[in-house]
Structure formats: C-alpha cells, structure tokens
Amino acid sequence: MANENGERPAIWVGYGKLLKLFRERAGLTQQQLAESVDYSYELVASVEQGRRPAKAAFTEAVESVLDADGTLRTLQPQVELAKFPAFFQNFALLETEAVSRFSYDPLLIPGLLQTEEYARGLLEAHYPPLDDEAVEQHVSARMARQALLTRKKPPLALAFVIEEAALRRAAGVASVMKGQLEGLRDCGQLRNVDVQIMPTTRPTHSGLNGGPMVFLETSDHRQAVYLESHGISTLVFDRARVSELSLCYGMLRARALSTEDSAALIDRLAGEL
C-alpha cells in the first residue's frame, strides 16, 4: 500500500532490505524462507520489496529462523505505525504513551470501539475510493490499535462521550450495526472504560460548537488535545487552550447520560435491529 504521495512507507522499505540481508546471510531463497516460517512466497517477496508491512507474528517467525538478534523486532512498532494515514501517525504514537484518554465523538463510533465489520463499512465509503488492499491495511491497523483497551502496563483509563446519532447511523447492513452496538456495550463493561451517550433530546451543549476531540495525558503528565476533520489534524499542547477544551469536555460529560443509562440505551437500540 502506498502513502498519499504514491510512495511506499520508508520504514517498510528499510525493513524489507534488512529482511533480505538476513535471508541471504542465512543462505536461503525467498521460497525456502517462506517454507521455514509457514508463510507464502508471495508474502515474503512483498515484504522484502516494501509493498506490504510485516505483521508481528511474521517478524517473530523470521527473527527465529534468521537469527536476526532482535533487529527486525525493534522495527516492528514503526512498521505498524506506518499503516496509519500520515496525518494520524503523530497522534497514534502519542496515544501509545498515554495513561488516560478521553474523547468526544459526534458523528461515528470511535475507532478504538469499532468492530471489524463496522470499520470496513466506513472505509469502503471513503471518497476518493480506497483500493481493497488499502481498506484491509487500515482495518488491520485499527483493530491492532484496540490492544490499548486491555493494556496492562501501564493501564489506560478511557472515557468516551458519543452522540446518540452515531449509534443510529448504520455502516452496512443491520446485522453489522447490531454487532457494533453489542460490541460497544461490551467495551463499556471493561473496568477502565466509561461510555456515555449524549442523547439527541439535549437541545444544546458545548460540543456543538466544535467537532470530535481527544484528550491525552502521558505518564510524565504531558497533556494534549487531538482535533481532526477531513484528514486534517492538529495536536494542541498549549496549556491554556488544553485547559479551555478540558472545561468544555467536563460539561459534555455532565450533560451526557450516566454509564448505566447509556448502557440501557445501547441495549435498546441494538434490540430494535
């Protein structure tokens, strides 16, 4: 998958060159390596050429066979990061360092809570259209990112305020949306996750003056707000602006349904499908 400039991500190209170097040092052909790690020849060739990213399981397999001494494993996080659109990568990296993450989502179920089918439906509606490989790469990256929900060290505290309208906008057939709502309810039952729904019966609230926003705090107490619209993103670190937006978010949480009432609403909407 090429980036928006039609180029392969540099980290994928670099990983591929190192893979080829270690393979040739081991005296193996691409076919022999593929057979050794139980992957296809086409996949090995694509990874070496930087056309496809290596997945973590592939990296672990070739590390063992090629005695790469952790070199490829060290590159894996950057390989994963390059699956995301360029405008999203700085945020995704900061997100991995966060100890708390609070967000407001007015239009869609947030990526961290999306099912695979729902995410694919959204990506297939992208315009200009994405090719099949790009859709699958983005879905894979989004699903891998959800490991943050159950991360142990350090655990991540998450809070989501989601507009009711996002729960009613289908991304595919009814069964996809039903599965998404059931998945959303299950995520809300995690001890480190709060899900609150902003009902459409609230006539006005502070979120109507802006769009989606994500608040992050890292282990060294750096705070940032991420704002995004139409593939254009901003990371805000200015303390005065972060404080102002935090007050806005506090009002949103106060106006939204409680977690218990939110879960009941999600169950009711799922039952209607």
What does this structure look like?
Helix content is 51%, strand content 14%. It contains twelve helices and six strands. The model has no long low-confidence stretch (mean pLDDT 92). It has 273 residues and is an alpha/beta fold. The chain has a six-stranded mixed sheet, sandwiched between helices. Strand 4 and strand 5 (223-229) form a beta hairpin. It has two domains: 10-81, lambda repressor-like DNA-binding domains (434 Repressor (Amino-terminal Domain), Orthogonal Bundle); 86-271, Endonuclease, Chain A (2-Layer Sandwich). The longest helix has 17 residues, at 239-255.
Brief rundown of the structure:
The protein is α/β, with parallel strands linked by helices. Helices cover 51% and strands 14% of the residues.
Outline type: elongated
- Rg (C-alpha, Å): 21 Å
Total of helices = 12
Main beta sheet, described? 6 strands, mixed
Number of strands: 6
What number of domains?
A: 2
Beta content: 5-15%
Low-pLDDT sequence parts:
none
Helix content: 40-55%
Report how far the terminal alpha carbons are from each other: 36 Å
Using the 3D structure, state the CATH architecture of the largest domain: 2-Layer Sandwich
CATH class wording of the largest domain: Alpha Beta
Secondary-structure class:
alpha/beta
SSE succession = HHHHHHEHHEHHEEEEHH
CATH-defined topology of the largest domain:
Endonuclease, Chain A
